[in-house]
């Protein structure tokens, strides 16, 4: 089938606008319920997606949280619809099935996901009776009835997770008093019952305490893959605007952020929807998912009431709600040859 005809057939059957080639190695992706859309990382202004994954074979319905592993595969968690985590290869496009999937049979409130350098998945459930982080060994598939379940005695309400460069697990949530707390657990030492390495909490942090839906569903963690600085998407204490607080690597105790991005010029907004609101590229740029298929990018070291250095705006039709975000900016080489619209390279290989 010729490439143009292939695009037309898929578009008619599934309402999918397919790109003509996979995204470049440096790219940013939005996860929007039933689809994933990718854009060149250095795009600015109106931009056509360079990669779209959508259709019944994908099984995507309420996808929100996503992460890209060191081999550039997508790990996508679905919220409420089911307990499935789908893994797609780097160049997945169109109506393509996952390369593998696994299911957490005891819970389906999957709010956040992270992957370590060994390709183990860490999946955060916020369902009260099963809350905590489930650790799933690499290459797992099918129903999982008894994965490792990590709980944090300091946290009574979980919100977001991340993995640092040492393969330690960061968990954000609220303690019994409603104070925000970000604990780092030593999963690099042992997965089962990892030790507490440090806690970040206290009024100097400027992080919003628990106090309603706005606070609970908008806090998101991201770790700079190069410096290990911790980025926290949150809200100001008066709940008037969103902010991103940046903490030094291995910050602990009641300490102030090294810088904060906040104010009307930033354009930061909170959606209240599940998913990773922020991501950080390997060169230190902060990427923020915004409503109406927009991505706000802030230059490395940005602080204060500063405008984004880039605003990527999808020039095609699509969902208007805010989705999760993931950046790919290190590792994995470009494949040789040009891809046609049916997912084959110039040699005809899938």
UniProtKB/TrEMBL annotation:
Keywords: Signal
SUPFAM superfamilies, per database record: Calcium-dependent phosphotriesterase
Secretion signal, residue range per the UniProt entry: 1-21
Chain intervals for the UniProt region annotation (Disordered): 310-350
Superkingdom of origin organism: Bacteria
Name this protein carries in UniProt: NHL repeat containing protein
């Amino acid at each position: 089938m010729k490439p143009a005809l292939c695009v037309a057939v898929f578009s008619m059957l599934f309402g999918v606008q397919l790109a003509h080639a996979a995204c470049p190695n440096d790219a940013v992706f939005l996860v929007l319920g039933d689809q994933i859309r990718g854009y060149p990382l250095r795009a600015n202004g109106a931009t056509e997606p360079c990669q779209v994954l959508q259709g019944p074979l994908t099984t995507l319905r309420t996808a929100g949280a996503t992460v890209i592993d060191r081999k550039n595969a997508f790990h996508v968690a679905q919220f409420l619809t089911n307990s499935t985590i789908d893994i797609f290869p780097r160049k997945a496009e169109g109506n393509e099935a996952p390369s593998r999937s696994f299911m957490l049979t005891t819970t389906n409130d999957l709010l956040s996901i992270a992957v370590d350098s060994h390709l183990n998945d860490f999946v955060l459930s916020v369902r009260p009776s099963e809350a905590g982080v489930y650790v799933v060994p690499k290459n797992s598939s099918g129903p999982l009835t008894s994965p490792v379940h990590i709980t944090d005695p300091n946290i009574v309400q979980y919100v977001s997770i991340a993995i640092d460069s040492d393969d330690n697990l960061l968990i954000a949530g609220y303690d019994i008093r409603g104070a925000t707390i970000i604990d780092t657990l030593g999963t690099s030492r042992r997965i089962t019952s990892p030790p507490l390495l440090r806690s970040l909490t206290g009024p100097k942090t400027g992080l919003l305490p628990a106090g309603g839906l706005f606070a609970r569903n908008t806090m998101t963690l991201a770790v700079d893959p190069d410096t290990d600085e911790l980025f926290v998407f949150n809200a100001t204490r008066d709940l008037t605007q969103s902010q991103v607080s940046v903490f030094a690597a291995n910050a602990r105790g009641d300490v102030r952020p090294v810088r904060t991005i906040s104010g009307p010029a930033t354009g930061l907004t909170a959606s209240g929807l599940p998913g990773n609101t922020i991501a950080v590229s390997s060169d230190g740029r902060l990427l923020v998912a915004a409503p109406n298929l927009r991505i706000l990018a802030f230059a490395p070291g940005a602080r204060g009431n500063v405008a984004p250095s880039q605003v990527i705006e999808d020039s095609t039709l699509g969902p208007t709600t805010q989705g999760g975000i993931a950046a790919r900016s290190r590792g994995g080489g470009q494949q040789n040859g040009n891809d046609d619209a049916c997912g084959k390279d110039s040699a005809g290989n899938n």
